[in-house]
Amino acid sequence: MTNSIDVQAQEAANKPQKILVAYFSWSGNTTRIANVIRQQTGGDIFEIVPQTPYPKDYNECLDVARKEKKEQARPPLKAKVENMEQYEVVFVGYPNWWSSIPMPVATFMEAYDFKGKIIVPFCSHGGGGLAQTVTDLKKLCPNVPFVKPIAIAGNGRNSLSSDIKKWLQETGIVKQ
Predict the structure, then answer these.
(1) Fold type of domain 4-171
(2) Rounded to two decimals, what is the model's pTM?
């Protein structure tokens, strides 16, 4: 069922917008997706980077991510978006960690006022799809319109560019 906020977001997305592509990536998969979105939308890009890096070892990273999720941690970030008020559409990208968003993404979402903006989630995953990620984002930004999200397995492989193009057309953000 589509809610009225999503319908409003869809209608607003049909107008030219100032776009930001903000993303968090651990393995590089979400970085690749974010770069394709930036390229196809002409938006600005911002990487969400925690002050303390995650372990490079996959299993160690999973342990840290699970602990942060359990504690609902808000890790401090290295940088912030300057002039966030100029953006009308904010793509928010992340890997699916434990069926939710990574906690640095929660830190990012709570750092800004998204009133008057449209949020467009995109997610990389290893088989879990979007899971509860969009629900969790909406809890952080109630009453903010969201546009149809996309979940990309791994780094999207060879079809990434065409998959993103099709998705952007469906959202109305890119019409080509």
Answers:
(1) Rossmann fold (3.40.50)
(2) 0.90
